[in-house]
Amino acid sequence: MKIAFKLAFRNLIGAGLRTWLNVIVLSFSFVVIIWMKGILVGWDHQAKNDMEQWEIGKGQFWHNQYDPYDGFTITDSHAPIPSEFKPEIEKGEMVPMLFAQGTIYPQGRMQPAMIKGIPASQTLLKIPTHKLDSVTDAIPAIIGEVMARSSHLEKGSRIVLRWRDSKGTFDATEIEIVDIFSTTVPTIDVAQVWINLETMQEKLLLPEQATLFSFANPEENRSEVGDFRLKTKKDLTAEIDAMIETKNKGQSVFYIILLLLAMLAIFDTQILSIFRRQKEIGTYVALGYTRQQVVTLFTVEGAMHAVLAAALAAVYGVPFFIWQARVGFTVPMDTSEFGMAIAPTMYPIYSMGLILSTTIIVLLTTSVVSYWPARRIAKMNPTEALRGKIQ
Amino acid sequence: MENIIQINQLIKRFPIGKGEFTALKGINLTFGTGEFAGLIGPSGSGKTTLLNIIGSLDMPTEGEAIVLGKPISKLSAKESAKLRKESLGFIFQSYNLLQVHTVFENVEFPLLLLDYTTSERKKMVMDALEWVGLTDKVKSKPPQLSGGECQRVAIARAMVKKPSLVLADEPTANLDAANSHNILQTMLNLNRELKTTFIFATHDEKVIGYLKRKIFLKDGLVDHEEWIKK
User: Fold this and answer.
1) Residues A321-333, mean pLDDT to the nearest whole number
2) How many CB atoms lie within 10 A of CB A345?
3) CB distance B98–A382 less than 8 Å?
4) Chain A residue with minimal CA distance to B93?
5) How many domains does chain A have?
6) Could you give the 3-state DSSP secondary structure of residue B70?
7) Do residue B96 and residue A283 have CB atoms under 8 angstroms apart?
8) A134: pLDDT strictly greater than 80
9) I need a labelling partner for A51 at 20 to 30 A (CA). Which of A87, A301, A306, B228 fits?
């Protein structure tokens, strides 16, 4: 086998341009696959990180009735704050939130919105809730950039907010947009209006009640508390995982096409080699190689394209990866309404596992497409091969 | 003189379309150590077929060829390869050098298959290149060499492991007269110095002139033999 590697290397280097063309195509596949997978990993990491910092903390407790995808559940999704949660809330390690459906009237037009009450003093989430302490003669409210854009609202805008309290009575008041925050997490931005929790409880006639809680400490040893069920970080980011998984599958098609192109080039080279290098094959046999050894030599030769490609990919790929990890990849479109936490610039993350798995996949695939045509050698008659007769 | 090849009633048939062609029709021959012999005959006389069978590159249809004590028809593919690797050298009409390898690497190739260390290989390759007068072309590749030089590299490759038997199929067919004589003289010297048996398949008068034993083949049979006492 050692000889096969030695000879294969000599043959490949000796073949010059033919080898390097294949190697360049294959190295391109390496770099693109690792980069695209790195982007997905980076996106996954960024999305989960942003969700944790802006929305969920280390996990949440949801009211049993609460279903974010069913508007009819919102009205009944509240219960008194359990006494077990109070120590954590007082220490600032848990944030209660109360949700209700409402309507805003920007420029006189009716627009549904989710009203979310959150303590102005909280620091667990990155939402700039301290702005809710602003002194105005209307109720101070904050909204995200997407909401501001879609509702034509800006800092200082005053609009009417209408809701229905727990007794079923409709009420309305004026709110003032005291801040517009920028976030990549659409679920705290799109069609959301944030006001102080106490104001919210008062307006809904639900004192000391909440819909859900975000907490700071990991969910170890936590379980259902009263009307509230535990939602781990894993549960809450499951959609991201599903989306990344779907995206990954979609990208796999692209990887397969890339690999197929590279493999086609190698397969073609191998097939041509077997016809063009018949005399050489005959010579190997005459000098004492078994046919199986010749098949191994040709397979190693083909597979070695992947090794050279990995080396070449490292030469130009590593600086590219480092540069990309530093400057990131800016999505060439507005991603704010994708319904997912997509930052305008995504920073790829490359792991050793990603690089190793990609290398192994490419190496295995190259070996298979090299072995396939090389099997023909085993059927060759060496005396015919020595004369270079096509069989 | 010890016999190293014993050929008994050797028949070789090749399928042609629905029928078959008999290339060798019952050859009986023996070759001893250190012979410088040639199978002589026109195209189709069976000389290359016989050489291929002696070289275990092909199998007899009937009869037997015992080479260095090994019955060719009974050897497995691995055993055939081992015989070629350890004891036989081949020289071809069109040199059959590995084009992308240097002269050194071409000559080194048979040694890679045997258990020699790097330093042993280097010494053996340089010795072989010295026999053929090509020590100054170590780093050249075959496309940079003349036909005569290529064939000398092929001889060095065949001789580097000091095999018991060298089989040369029309070794001078692509060479001019001067180069042919040069090559043949080299082989003759190696035959004398190393006691290696050389068997040629040829119809080239220049080669025939150097042979000590001439075996004339005609239509797959030995027509007659001549021994030259020099």
Assistant:
1) 84
2) 13
3) no
4) A387
5) 2
6) strand
7) yes
8) yes
9) A87
